[in-house]
Amino acid sequence: MLKQVHPKMNGANDTDAVAFVVIGRNEGKRLLASLRSVLAVSSQAVYADSASVDGSPDLARSLGIVVVDLSSGRLNAARGRNEGLAAVREHFPNARLIQFLDGDCILEPAWPRAAAAFLNDHPNVAVVCGRRYEARPQASFYNFIADEEWNTPIGPCDACGGDSMMRLEALNAAGGFDPELMAGEEPELCGRLRALGWKIWRLDCPMTEHDANIMRFGEWWRRVVRSGFGYAQVWHRCSRASRPSSLAPQLRSAIFWVVLVPIGTIIAAVLFRQAAFMLAIPIAYAVQLVRIGSRRRGSASFRLRSSGLVMIAKVAELAGALRYVLSPEYNQPIEYKNNPN
Q1: How far, rounded to the nearest angstrom, does the alpha carbon of residue 132 sit from its chain's CA centroid?
Q2: DSSP label at 244?
Q3: Distance between CA atoms of 182 and 203, rounded to whole angstroms?
Q4: pLDDT above 90 coverage of the chain, percent
Q5: How far is residue 60's CA from residue 58's CA, in Å, rounded to a whole number?
Q6: SS3 at position 102
Q7: What pLDDT score does 338 carry?
């Protein structure tokens, strides 16, 4: 049970208690659109930049936004959000809610008021997120799949994504984001918040427009490798602290399908001297493809392609996990997008 409950905010001025933290690295024109969407709602904004070389910090300053320039040290989203949060405390001390936003996202103007009102009415909720959607889902198959990823169930949930509104009281209690994490920082923080008794919630409300801009297989692959790196790093951090990780199932699934299924089948074929056992590998994968496709909408061709991508993603995720095992101290951002400039 939570011991502290804030008094309710004045409904007409819910957004007065909100400050905005935008993070980015070489986002170019996307950042300009993102910052303008925030300024259309509030002037209480901070931009945390991770060593951009495209003039992003100067762009933000020209708009009158407080800038935190992270030019050295570990560069990741977690550190950017923490440093942005510190700047909010300094420049906007009356803020009690923080809207985090990635620099490739455009804020929906109605979202801050809806999110603040929900937090106002639900004092046991620490984090609220809405529908992030892709700007150009039809531009590539990868963009379309990303848009599907954002469409998660409404109501209580285990974690949020990079865009969300958080209660400052809860962030303080949890100690903020883990600055050591190169990916997966939101699920890890949400796990600590839930352990403290807070709830995470997703609303049926448009929140942000995201520009994935993934046009090639290589870009998609690097994005999934980054996710796998985060799965392994978060799992390791949580296991050391004797806490469950919401990302552990993804890591276990990658290990099962990429390692255990083929190796287990090969061992069985050798032990029983039955080469026919090797047929179990393609059969198992085929059954899984059908199983995944049966839960997706669209044509048979689309379901097959998307199911195949899910299975290929497990290889990329495991590659990312192995990258963490081999280089646990890796501290540079794993980038997958090209600068739009």
Answers
A1: 11
A2: -
A3: 27
A4: 81
A5: 5
A6: strand
A7: 60
Q: How far, CA to CA in Å, does 30 sit from each of 40, 104, 130, 143, 151?
A: 16, 5, 20, 16, 22
- Count of CB atoms within 10 A of residue 136's CB? 15
pLDDT of residue 15: 67
Provide the 10 A C-beta neighbour count for residue 324.
21
Nearest to 260 by CA among 272, 248, 251: 251
d(CA 162, CA 129): 9
| Token pair listed for 189 | 């923080």
Assigned fold of 11-215: Spore Coat Polysaccharide Biosynthesis Protein SpsA; Chain A (3.90.550)
Q: Measuring CA to CA, which residue among 96, 92, 98 is closest to residue 80?
A: 98
Residues of the chain with CATH 3.90.550.10: 11-215
Is the pLDDT at 213 greater than 70? The verdict is: yes
Q: Mean of the per-residue pLDDT values for the chain?
A: 91
DSSP 154-208: SEEES---SSEEEEHHHHHHHTS--TT-SS-HHHHHHHHHHHTT-EEEEEEEEEE
Q: What is the DSSP letter of 134?
A: E
Contact partners, residue 55, CB within 8 Å, separation at least 6: none
- The model's pLDDT over 181-203, given as tens digits with 9 standing for 90+, comes to 989 999 999 999 999 999 999 99
- Coil, helix or strand for 69? strand
Other CB atoms within 10 Å distance of the CB of residue 340: 14
Q: How far apart are CA 320 and CA 84, in angstroms?
A: 28
Number of residues in the chain:
341
Residue 150 clears pLDDT 70, i.e. is over it: yes
Encoded tokens for 17: 């208690």
Q: pTM of the full predicted structure?
A: 0.88
Pairing of strands 155-157, 199-210: antiparallel
